[in-house]
Each structure stands twice: as C-alpha cells, then as structure tokens.
Specification:
The protein contains 27 helices and 25 strands. The strands form five sheets. Strands 17, 18, 19, 20, 21, 22, 23, 24 and 25 form a nine-stranded mixed β-sheet that branches. Strands 1, 2, 3, 6, 7, 15 and 16 form a seven-stranded mixed β-sheet that branches. Strands 4-11-12-13 form a four-stranded mixed β-sheet, covered by helices on one side. It is elongated, with a radius of gyration of 44 Å. One of its GO terms (molecular function) is adenylate cyclase activity.
Amino acid sequence: MIKKTLHNLKKNWPPITICISITAMACVVLFHHFRSQYEHYRNSDLVYSVESKILDWKLRSRGVDETETKVGILAIDERSLSKFGRWPFSRKFYSQAFANLKKIGVKWIGFDVVWAEKEQTLLTDSQPLYRTINRTNYKARIKAMDRMTENSPSDIKFARAIKEFENIILGYFYFGDKAEFERTAGHREPFRDLDLMLSSAIEAVDMPEGRELKDYNLPKAYGVVSNTPIYLNSSEHFAFFSNDADDDAINRWVTLAAKVDGNLMPSLALKGAAEFLNSEIFVFFNEAAIEGIVLVNREDEEQAIEIPIDPAGYGRLLIQHRGPSQGFQHFSLADAYDDSFSNEEREALKGSILLLGATATGINDIRPNPFDPAIDGVENHAAAIDNIVRRRFLRRPATMIETEFMIILGIGLFFSPILIWGHAITSGLALLVFLGGFWAVDYFFWFEKGIWAYLAVPCTQILSMFLLTNIFKYISEEKDKQFLKSAFGSYISPELIEDMYNTGEPPKLGGNSGILTAYFTDIQGFSSFSEKLTATQLVELLNEYLTAMTDILLEEKGTLDKYEGDAIIAFFGAPMPLEDHAVRACTVAVKMQYTLLQLRKKWTDEGDKWPQIVKDMRMRIGINSGEIVTGNMGSRDRMNYTMMGDSVNLAARLEEAAKQYGIFTQVSQFTKDLTDDKFEMRELDTIRVVGKKEPVTTYDLLGIKGMTPPGLVKLKDTFHHGLQLYKDMKWDEAIAVFKQSLEMEWLRYPDLKGKKTNPSEIYIERCEEFKKNPPPDDWDRVYTLTKK
C-alpha cells in the first residue's frame, strides 16, 4: 500500500509541483500588489488594472441607480451660454440666479468652478460709477475711480450674492505633482490666499501621541489655484475639487482630505456632504495612515456616518457611480436666472445641494467614469456626495485582503487533488462550479453589499492550475499512447488503440448492432484511368481526390471503414452515436459532389496536365440506413473496426445501380425517412436489387432543401407527376409528362457533355415497352434489376 502510494506520488509529482508553485506565485503577486498600494495611493499595477476593469463591468451589469437623491447639478449648459454670452460670461448674472435658488429652498451650492482672476470691467457695468464721478466733488471722484480699478461691479455683485446665499462652498484645485506646479504656475506663490480658506481646515483630527500631519504619506498639494480674494472674503466654506483619476483616466476614487501647506483640507465631496448633513468632520489616524473618517451631526452626536476609505489609509472613497452622463438631475443656470423651473423641478430643488459646474460642449471638464467615457467631471463629485448622504458605499475593507489570501490558499489546498488525480472532465466540472460559484458569491454576497472583492488573481490561479496540469497529463498520456502505437500499431487499428488506452482493456473480437447509415462511393469508369495516366499521375490524382472527400466525411463525423482502390466505404453513427446519422450522410454526399465539381474545374484549368477523362470524372454514391453490425472484426492477433449486414450490402448495390438510371447519388427509402425532409429528393423507382428479394424505393438526391436551384425542384415535381401516371398505367400521359421532365434533365448535371442516360429517358422507354406488352393485372410496380 505504501509502495503504491509512493509510486502514485512520484508519477504525479510534476502536477503537484505545478499546483504548489502557482498557489505560491498567486500569494506573492497579491502580496506585492498590496505592498505597492500601501507605498503610494496612485500605484496602478497589473493586478489593480485588471481588477478595476472587472469592477467597472460589475457596475455596468448592475445598471443605472435611479433612486431619488437630493444632489443635483447647477449646469452651465448650452442654454446658459446662449443667454449670458460666450464663456466666461459676466459674473453679474449669478446674483439673480442664486437669489432665486435660495427662494426656492436650495440648501447648499458647491462650486466645481474657480475664478482665480478678477473680471475685466465692462463699459455697461461701469456706467453707474461714471454717473457718480460726474456728480461728485474731486475726492469722491478719486474714490470711485479707485473702486473701478480694485474690483469690477460684476465682481462686487457676485461676491455679495455669495455672502447673501451664505451656504456656498467655494471650490479650488491643487497641484498634486510638484513638477506640474513648477511647469504651469511659473513664479506664482504656491499657496496664495490659503490663509483666507483656513476656516474650512479639518480641526477634529485624532492622532497618536507624538505624531504630526507631516509624518503621514497622504495626498499632498504643492500649490493651489483659488478664487480671487473678494470671493474668498464672502464665504466661510472652501473645498478642493481636484480629480483623482486612475492611470486609465477613469475616476473610480475621490480623495476626501489632503495635506495643503501643513493643513488637512477637505474635498468638495467631503465638505459638501458634511455641510448638507450639518455635520462636523472627524479624521482618525493610526501610526501609519488614516484609520477612519466620520461625520458627526452638530446637533445630535449619536447621528454619525463612518465613511469607508481605502485600506491603505490615504483617505480615499471608492465611488459607487449612479450611471452614465446625466445620472444626476441637471438644472440650467439660465432657468435659475429666469426662475423658470417647472413644478417638478422646484420640488426636487427644495432642500437639495447643487454643484455648479460647466456641462456645455467645449467648456465642460470631461472625466470618464466606469459607465461613460465622456461624463462631466462635476458628476463624479456629485456621486461621492450622494454616496455619503445616502450611506450607499462601495468599499474595499482591509479584511478582504485576508479573505483573498484565504481563497487562494483554499484553492491550492482543495482543488489541487481534483486537478491532479481527477479526470479532465471531472476537473473541468470542478473548475466551472468554482468559477460560477465564486462569481455568484462575489456578485450577490459581496458586491450587492457594496464590497469590492478581487476576482482576477483567484480565477487566474485556478485556470492556470487547470491548464498546466491538464497539459502535463495530456503530454504524459500521449507518450503512453505513442508507446501503445509503436507496440501494437502494426496489428490493430488506431481506433482500437485509443479504445484500449481509454478503457485499459485489450481489444476483443465482437461487435455491436444498431440503426446506422452505410455509405459507398465509386469513381465512374475508373478502370479506364490507368490506361490514360502514368502510375505517378494516378497516385497524385487519387491522393488529391481521396483527401478532399475524406476531409468532408470526417468533418461530418463519418467513420472511414476503408479505401478499396478509388472506392470510399464509410458509415455514420458508430463508434460515436449520432442521432442525425442519415442527415449527415446525405449532407456529405451533396458536399462531395460539389467538391468534385470544383476539382473538375481545377483540373480543366491545369490544361494538358490531365487527359479529358480526368476533367470529366464522376463519382457514384449509394446510401442506405438500417440494422448494421459494427465492431472489431478479424483474428485475435489482427483486427479492424468495420461494419457488416444486409443494409451494408444494399448501400453497395444502390451505388452500383445508380449507373443504370444515369444518376450519381442514390438513396434508399430507409435513409430518406430519417432525414426529416431536409433534402430535395426525386423518387426514382421501387426496385429489387440483385441478391435481395424485398423491394426498396430509391431516390435521386438533388440537394439540400432551401439551397436547391428552382429548376431542379421543378424537375422533381414534373417527374413525380409522370411517375404517378406510370404507376397508374396511363402510358401515353406518362410519356408526355416524362418528355417535359426530359427537357429539364440537363439541369441535373449542366457540365455533363453529350447524350447520357437519365431517369426520364428510362421511363419513356419503359412506357413504350408496356404499351406494347402490358404488365399483368397483379403488377406490383417493382422493377427487378438483372445486373449490378
């Protein structure tokens, strides 16, 4: 027992090594990925790239989230540009728009726009000041002129509107890359006017003793671009709206807090959600990174929202996107200015938070999300606010890392034995069960609960184990088969060697009986070919012909019994059972006749290489279905897989008898009954072949139904009419109809030159004979063939 076990282990040691190695490699790859994620939040390796694409697919398969939300977009759209002028239009128009929105009941407005420079004073805006100058004394004139140079009337009006609305969050953006700041900012002071925005710095920060903000590797600003001071002095709420796209430009995360010149500043998403919920922002640090971000209601500390952040602790939120563009309701700034909202829009605006952003083509900020490559960037900020407000998060908890390692080790532990010792089908089924189950658990247990689990590494692991172990087993099996072929190939057929290997049993004499289809082909007048061709030409011709025909046979899962010179003997339905064996046999016949037509054209195009007899080559086919015995037949030392039975003999006789009717494919009634009327067949005759007493009705196979030329269908119908008249012994009427079908017989073989025998001609002659010598009263309409 121990010896057998050791031998089994030795034999399977390579696949065991494969499974262990792949499992170890999967753990290393995952470990390296997690380490790189902790080193820098923007580190997008191959694992992350693949997993993020899978996450995108899951979001898209989930569909659009149409749940009602109080987050909307105050859109600077095409209508706004049409009303206020080209961008950037005068800021004086915002005053009336904000006043109308406040009157409707909008709670908060966040700016995804920044006005870093003063607006140039327009002549129309300065007219009131010019009037003042003309009416006042010298000192008053000087003061009015100073006001005109310090701030434009539009800036003053806009600043007043911000102050009167009160609940407006002014946005700004920061440079997260030092080189980018130095390249674009020039001599600009990196943190100009930051002191005016520190009222929004996050004060509620909990750090371990002795730790400071500078000790943490968080997203960091190397410079900011903020609004002009007159606007900053009009508000107490500020937030950055810098985007945080992955390397493929898709926005999956939003940074909630960043280091800005030694201060922890909130993003538009975090600040917007906190103010909308009347909450204070609390940030908790551990020794290495941010441990948690919590919003605590200012009026009720029991009401708190813990925002899930990235497991590396960079303070980033994984966005649960609602869908493609227009996922949030857009309210035109033009409508806000005119106060022309519909009743439904007014209801939606009450108690809402709006993000002001450009959506008009040409000025909008395109920021792709998993649903849409051309979505307005403001919608990504809206999605993050919506996630926090509705507590509908998509998260990547740190505990998932441990779970994923356990999954990888579990695959290695439980699936390795199945892959190593199980049959390929068993291991394949196990693979499918795992993949299906794993994806189902992920989608319905994790993803539906907002948890992002990694799928690519475990799936790649088990697929690699499956493929490599089966490749190894296949190579080993092929070596074993090759040994059997080299040892027994000269005695038994390759099919038996395969069967012997699969069953582990030596071949035995005997066979099985069943309803199959026998198939015989023969080249017409092939004995004459040897007189016209050299031995080399004959071999070349036969090889080309037999190769083309055998390929068709095997393509339709036919079994090649043997070649007998130019003849092909085959059958359908064994050793592989085929329910449609008769259909396949007829299909092969149609394809073979068509392929021979193409070969004739090819040989004709080759000119003098071939004599005319080759260019006119025809093949006859006989097909019959019935009880046939197949199996290993021969001596105990040498045998072959072949067929026997009366049904086989009838197929051979049909092939031979086709010559007497001038056709090339003759099918029995037994075969036709099994083809489900899928072919156009012309009833030919009811005959009694040589060597058989029972008559059989035979058919001329014209083609596949629906693909047969209309002329041949008409030929069939006309011929059938004549045949019925023949059976009714109406000889003159039958002759008249057969003469009609005779005119169409050439359609059967258009390239057949000269006058040849055909069924219509045969029946005309028979009718003429029966007119002279009528059949007896008990005539059974059976024609007895007197020769093969």
